[in-house]
Amino acid sequence: MKYILALDQGTTSSRAILFDSFGNVAGKAYQEFRQIYPRAGWVEHDPKDILGSQVGVIAEALVRAGADIKDVEAVGISNQRETTLVWDALTGQPIYNAIVWQCRRTAEMCDALKESGADKIIYAKTGLIADAYFSATKIKWILDNVQGARSLANAGRLRFGTVDTYLLYKLSGGRIFATDYTNAARTMLFNIHTREWDDDLLSLFDIPRSMLPEVYPSGYVYGSTDAAFLGRKLNICAVAGDQQAALYGHLCTHKGDIKNTYGTGCFLLMNTGGEAVQSRNGLITSLAAGYTRSPDYILEGSVFVGGAAVQWLRDEMRLIDTAAESEALATKVPSSDGVYVVPAFTGLGAPYWDARARGAIVGITRGTSREHIVRATLEGIAYQVADIVSAMERDAGIKINQLRVDGGASANNFLMSFQSDILGCSVLRPAVVETTALGAAYLAGITSGMWSDAEELRNNERIERTFTPSIGKEKRAKLLSGWRSAVSAARIR
Ligand code: ADP
User: Fold this and answer.
1) Is 12 one of the annotated binding-site residues?
2) Could you point out which of 157, 212, 381, 417 has its C-alpha 20 to 30 Å from the C-alpha of 344?
3) Binding of glycerol: at which residues (predicted)?
């Protein structure tokens, strides 16, 4: 048996999953690592923890699969996006901790970009909204604040990488200095139209070009790991940012294909083919994973509070003991009886972009019960997802006919069924829910020749359950109209 090893380096844990030639999980292991919060709103990772946890789980995954390292045909990497590392090329040592995507330390720098109007240039070139999430301001912060960094950078000694680049560099013993289009597209330095690092943006952020890695397609033979790591050289045949890897894991390779990941927050990505769609609704335009120098474009939108609303029901409202219990409670009542929960705890994202909005519960009567509130909270997640889907449909001029799902909360059958009702289309939940790792494995396996193409994989695809709408157009319109009123209530300040 031959295997593909997927390394899924996430924000809170590193995972290694071994997939067999049928795309089944043969063995997996994961390890959480330390989150560092030096100040309110700041988040860092120790680069040693990222590398150590990622390498540490490989052996365990092999043992669980009963596989030998020589049976591994190729390695694919998926990673938390935007998180920024800077190291000295001479020593290979990072000069600062990894600044994590969630870190808000450069929020003021981004406000200044908006005031100066530079955000418009950034959007036109990168498809991104000028925000502290993306790598550019984080690199600038390191160069401006770490002692000696600026002079090392000017001398051409520093290297910047997102987590994929750092792993490639370390796993190859310093021989590979590269990234892929999906990760490059999240740096705010990469022009998604010319598909090159952008000199205007580099000078805007005062970042020398010598710091930047080479950019390749996601499916590409990047080189091999150093034998010192695993006792054997392995070919690294794919790299992709986690959300794009998940999109590929769902085989959303055609225009109009769309997926949503229901985690703490929700991440929706739609493949828009060869067209970089300009959003009028505050969505991001970016690049999909592929094998060529002209990857497909995507539209991306996120819901800040997704599964986190269920955690709120459990931890703050104490209406449920476990996240899974929400499903049983929600189905005890035939409807939410006019109650809406808008979980805008930290404001509303696309298509509203209202940072001042706050959560709201509306439509309560004397008869409102725990079950109604729980049900309305799950529905609130689905409505937010529907708002983004509809923004994507309007921006791209595409009507979707199915949504593919993954992530922790996609296990909730009530939520998936209501999502289908409110979208008026099918919701497809795959049998292999490790979609991010699966996408990295697919990309690596096709690049290495284990599989011929996405069509071959599509023929073997297994959908665990398909949810179809059980309500008609009129009922849907009525529910959506109630949701819009509830959102208005959440925006009154
Ligand atoms: P992340 O990758 O963001 O950590 P996961 O994909 O692991 O998230 O999903 C965890 C989230 O899913 C949590 O917010 C949790 O509340 C929610 N969740 C897990 N199981 C269920 C369930 N059965 N019903 C509803 N929500 C759930």
Assistant:
1) yes
2) 417
3) 81-82, 133, 242-243
